[in-house]
Specification:
By secondary structure, the chain is of the alpha+beta class. The chain has one domain. It has 1 helix and 3 strands, in the order βββα. The chain has a 3-stranded antiparallel sheet, with helices on one face. It is elongated and about 50 Å long. The relative contact order is 0.12.
Length: 87
């Protein structure tokens, strides 16, 4: 395995406080991760939700990587996909 296979995807998060009543945790692509009451939101709670979201995204990323690896391997086994060394 190369070192690139061990790299984790990068996802940046930010807190959207544009509404005075709601704090929204968003990803770099502006996707909403979670919404909190502005009065009850805590730094720890927001960080915990961001960690959970990141873990889910990493699992999805690794599953997609595995699917790509399996597809590559199965293509090598299809007729015409196995090449003999010239003698």
């Amino acid at each position: 395995m190369s070192t690139e296979e061990f790299r984790f995807p990068t996802f940046a998060y930010y807190v959207d406080e544009s509404d005075p009543d709601i704090v929204v945790l968003r990803r770099q692509d502006d996707a909403m991760v979670a919404a909190f009451s502005a009065r009850a939101a805590t730094r720890e709670g927001i960080i915990a939700v961001a960690r959970e979201d990141y873990q889910e995204l990493v699992q999805i990323h690794w599953a997609q990587q595995q699917e790509g690896t399996e597809e590559h391997r199965s293509a090598d086994l299809e007729p015409g996909g196995i090449h003999q060394r010239p003698s």
